[in-house]
Structure formats: C-alpha cells, structure tokens
Design goal:
Layout lengths: L1 E7 L8 E6 L9 E6 L2 E11 L9 E2 L2 E2 L8 H13 L4 H8 L15 E7 L9 H13 L1 E3 H7 L3 H7 L2 E7 L18 H9 L7 E6 L5 H14 L3 E5 L6 H12 L4 E3 L5 H12 L5 E4 L11 E7 L16 H12 L3 E5 L4 H8 L4 E5 L9 E6 L14 H12 L3 E5 L8 E4 L16 E3 L4 E3 L6 E2 L8 E4 L3 H11 L5 E4 L9 H10 L5 E4 L12 E6 L13 H13 L10 E6 L5 H7 L3 H15 L6 E9 L2 H14 L6 E11 L2 E10 L2 H16 L5 E6 L7
Parallel strand pairs: 2-5, 10-15, 10-16, 11-13, 11-14, 12-13, 14-15, 17-27, 18-25, 18-26, 24-25, 26-27
Antiparallel strand pairs: 1-2, 1-4, 3-4, 3-6, 7-8, 7-9, 19-23, 20-21, 21-22, 28-30, 28-31, 29-30
Bound molecules: adenosine-5'-diphosphate and zinc ion (ZN).
Adenosine-5'-diphosphate binds next to helix 7.
Amino acid sequence: MKYYDIVLEDGFFFQDAYTYKSSNDAIKVGMRVMVTIQNRERVGFVVKAYEPISLPYEVLPIKEVIDEEVILNQELMDLAYTMAHHYVAPTISCFQTILPNKLRPKSNHRPIKMVRMVRLNPNHQHSLTPKQAELVNLLETKKRLSYTQARKFYSNVKVLVEKGVLEAYEIEAMYEPQEIKQETFNHVLTQDQESAISKIKLGSQTTYLLHGVTGSGKTEVYLHVAEKALKNNQQVLIMVPEISLTPQMIERVSKRFGRDVAIYHSGLNDQEKYEQYKRVKEAKVKLIVGTRSSIFLPFTNLGLIVMDEEHDTSYKQGNTPYYHTRDIAQWRQKTHNCPLVLGSASPSLESYARALRNVYTLIELSHRINHQFPKVTLVDTNQQLHRPHGAYLSAPLENAIQHRLEKKEQVVLLLNRRGYLPILKDVKTQKVLECPHCDVALNYHKFDHVLRCHICGYQSNKTPTNMTLTGQGMGTERFAELIQHHFPSANVLRMDADTTRRKGSHAKILSSFIHHEYDILIGTQMIAKGLDIPNVTLVGIVNADAGLVHDDYRSVEQSFATLLQASGRSGRGDKVGEVVLQTFNQDHYAIVCAVHQKYKHFFKQEMMYRKLASYPPYSFLISVVFYDEKEEKAQVAAELFDHLFIDPTIQKIGPTGIRRLSNRYRVRVILKGKDLDTMINKTNEVIQHYRQRENVRFTVDVNPMGIES
Ligand code: ADP
Ligand code: ZN
C-alpha cells in the first residue's frame, strides 16, 4: 500500500494536490488515475508516491489507473511546477497546458484512435487459394498490414482471420512519414552569415539574439546551425509565431534536410497532435517546426531551439497560465544544455536591452541578401480625405497598385481590422451598437450578414439596414470589396481570422497566392509576418496609425514591429520592391524609424519613454484581475487583495474597473516593481488566501504583454 499525491482535473478545489491510496504497483508518478472527491468521479494526475504516513483525515482509494505508461517525464513535471510558481497559476492548469489534449487529465477526454492490423499466425497450416497466398506472401516480408491495406490484396480478410491464418490486433494510429526530396543550398553564405553561424555554440546554454533586417538571411543561419545539431543526432525545434507561417517554414526545412519534419500547432486536431507528440517522444523525428505549444513537446535530446520573430506577441499565451514561450525555452535549454536563438528584425525591447547588457549574445546581420530595401512612399492621409474612401485607398496607393498589376506583379495590402464595418450606430439615437455581454462595439460582417462581437463571439439577430443603422470605418471584408471595385479584372484574395477558420485554410490561401492565382492579397497582421514571396513588389499599409493611438504602453513598439515586418514583405526577390504607407502621423518616430529601417534609433527613443514612465524593461509588471458576473463581488475581492498586499518595494496601481467581457465585470490591480522574484513570491503568498475561497475568481498575468484600459 502506498500513498499518492494527486492533482485533480478541476483547478477550483481548495488545494493543489490531494492524497489517495492504492496497493496497485503499476501506479507511477506521471500517470492519470480516477478518484472520487465529494462523491464525484474526477480524473487526476499522480505527482508523488510515498509510504503511508499518519494523516488527520481518511485517505480514499484510487479507483482506477488510466495510463499504462508514464505520460509525463521528470523534466516536464518539474516544468509544470516551475510554471505554477512563476506564473502564479494552478498546478493543474500547467499540466493541462503541457500535455496534448488526448493525454490531459480530463473526464471528457476522447480515446486515442486505434487501427486494426493483421499479421501472420506462425502456426497456421491451411491450404490457400492463389489470391490468399498472395496476401500471405506479402505479410511474410511486410510482417504486418492494416486491415484496410490487406483487403486491397484479398477482400475477405475476415475469413483468413477466422480460419486462424492471420491474427487481427489493434495498435494506436500513427503518423506515416512521407518521402521528401532534398534540395541543397547552392549559394555562398555571406560573411555576416558565416560569422553568425560560427558564434552559435551547440552544447552551451547561451541565448543568442540574432538581429537582422528582413531578408538578411536569418533563416539560413537557423538552418545551418540546425544541420550541425542534426549531425550530432540531436533534435531541433524551430518555432514561428503564427500558424500561417508554418507551411513556409516546414517546406523550407523539410526540403533542405530531405526529411519529414514534425509539425505542431493549434490547427491540428487532437489525434494529429497526439501522433506528432508520440513521434517526438519516441525520438522518431529530429526536426520539429511549430507554434508556441511546440515548446512543451517531450524532447529527449534537444540540441537547438530557435524562436523566429521573437518579438511577436503570439508567443505569449492569452489565458491561464499566461506563459511566455521565451521563458519556457530558457528553462528547457537548461535541461537539454542547448542554445536558444531568438531571431527578429525588430527584437522586443526586453530582449534587445538584455543583449546590450550581455545577458544575451547579440549577433547582427546588417544587410539584405539582395542589397536593396524597398522604396517607401509615405502618404499623408489628411491630404486624401477629399477622395471617396481616401483614408483607405489614397491616390498614390491606387496608382501603385495599377502599375504593379500592369507588370503582372503581386500586391499585399495590410489592414489591421477584420469584418466589414467596425462601428455601427443607431440612426435615431446615434449610439454605437455594443455587445450585450462585453463593453466593445459590434462589428458588421457582410458575408453572413450579422453583427458579431470579436471578443465573445456573440451574434446579434438584429440585422443592419440603411434605415436603422449607419456604419463607420473599414474592415478587411469591406476593403476587399472596395479594391475589387477599383480593379475589376484583378483577382483579390482575403486572409484574416474569418477566412482561415477551416482547417488547412492558411496553407491553401497562401499557396494559391504564391502560385499567382491571385494578384492582390488583403489581410490583417496575419499576413504581415514572415512571408517570402519574390513576386510581391508592392506592400500597401492601409492604416499605419492603427496601434499608435492606442494608449497601451506597448502598442507603439508593436506597431513599429508590424510596420517593419510588413514593409519587409516587398521586393524579396530580384525585383525592386515598393511600400506605400498611409498615415495621419507622418512625423511620429515609430513611422519615421520604420520607414528608414532604423531599429536602434527607435529602440533609444522608445526606451526613453519607458524609463520616464518606469515601464518594462525598466520595471516588471504583474496584472491581477478579479472577475465576476456581479460587479460588487469583483470589486470587493480586488480591494481585499489590495489590502493584503503590502510591500514597500512594490507599487500598486488600482483597483481599477476595466472592460466587462463575456458578462464578467473585471477589477484589476497592477503590481510594478524592480525585482520580479520578490513580486512573484509575494503574489503567490497573497493569492493563497483566495485559493481557499471557492467563489472568488481571478487571473494572474506575470509580465503582461500590455495593459488594456
Ligand atoms: P530572413 O529570415 O532574414 O528574412 P532568409 O533566410 O529568408 O532571410 O533569406 C532571404 C532570401 O535570401 C531567401 O530567399 C534565401 O533563400 C536567400 N538567401 C539567404 N542567404 C543567402 C545567400 N547567402 N546567398 C543567396 N541567397 C540567400
Ligand atoms: Zn461580446
């Protein structure tokens, strides 16, 4: 008989782990089990096993063991605890984040897909028809076939199984690796690239910041270092921030090495994720390309981690645990003793500041491979307002598009807002239509003719008519219509969250654009990043001001990055590229620096503002939000937190009521300080009071990406 500490699937019980007992030796730390709590059956995760001790309460037995083998190794177990502490999150939420859906401790988990197989019964002695013999011969060489495959050779497999010639059995469905034709790199590396590659040391725990303008050959550097790690028989993880970027990276990586890489991102279904997870766990695959969730894969021998576009906010998870992929990568590089390469044309201020302080090793690629930057034209939107829709399609942009279309070149237009009309007003009252559950405006989507909330997904049945509602603004859907109207013979394609809902649609849209089935691609920030299409010679940034007016401390940094990225999409091949940037703020430093590709200048200027306001990287922030359907309850909880949290070294901002979302009133306290460890320890300590009150709900975000108002 042993005692086991078990973390239960629901994070809302009083404590992190509960003790159960069992005399079943098969139970190991890292397995899922079924237990009862308050007369309910719950799935739990075994985190500790020990000899019975005396406890002041009755220890209940474990009802059932779910797994046959350990599903989480020691490294990932430790990681879950590190995360729980660092992000002030329930331990169970960290386990749930690390494990793929099929393996999560959850009552409603779906079984893993099984495949029926057949193999020869070694003892069979039957006379066979020629057709049957054909299948039997095949099985002698192949050893096993799936039932479906076997039936292609002899349709009545069932009879052979019944006669005992074949044995039928089941295995887990597994990914079938594909043959990939290798394409070697037949260019000469630039001196910058050579020197970058030689600086990155395998087997070291160094974090490198590879700062190189778009098209400076960063990806080539990753691939060359990856090659070295592969030669050492190590695994390599290359991360990109968005699913839309995975097809390109996968193609480039797999062709270069002539290997079928593992792919891991949220666009895969649970079964596909599980199959990729297994390939990594069993070390059947060495190269992995994925988005942020791939950082949790069960690597056995990781030799290199790459985070491309390291500044991208998609590397931060938007719910509990609010982790940043960079933190996780740094924890994992310690276990695997491998380098982490952060690449970007516009590094996050934190990373660049760390590089300047030699916490990271800075490596720079200062030239574009093709030695030409696109020509940037700034358009003062104020001068265009006399034209119909001039704020969106200025005369210079219209001419530039016309010119490129005539030359049979391609155009990318960026507009950071999806939908048709972002703001709708009631004609009579002039009131903006808001979501009944959130404090945000409803967006009109013309395609399905609905008003939709982009936060909670609420759809209004009140359809807009000219009589009752008037609209303002422009989303991608309406902009595509406008462009199509101006260029009737062009093929116009749109890519945003609405057109990429279906599985595989990212890849499909991009591939059709790459193959020039379309002339113009219109999209949200999704298209601003990383695309490398030689025939794109014009990028139009429709509303460059989108982020500049936002009052979040990080929004200028993010707009700058988007502008730099977006302009980097133009002229990546042999043809000279052009960028048209429409703005109301021609003199804003973010615009000026982006136009002239002056990262360091921007960095200095922005750091000055951060210093003045003592914002990160000059301080650390933790955002604690209490929420409830009743406003008063959230308020009281936040006030209590404010009351309990006393530390003279940590500044508190709030409690402040912020936007209601999905019917939840939210009240926030922001903590600001210089020593993150102290802040985290103190938050954990104070939050402990709340973990014991079942009915207070809150979220903690350590190093939030922004502070919404
Ligand atoms: P980044 O990742 O910095 O945007 P890439 O590695 O994608 O840059 O390189 C930009 C383009 O230049 C790609 O098409 C790539 O194949 C090509 N390229 C990279 N390095 C070289 C080189 N040394 N010689 C010629 N072409 C190169
Ligand atoms: Zn809503």
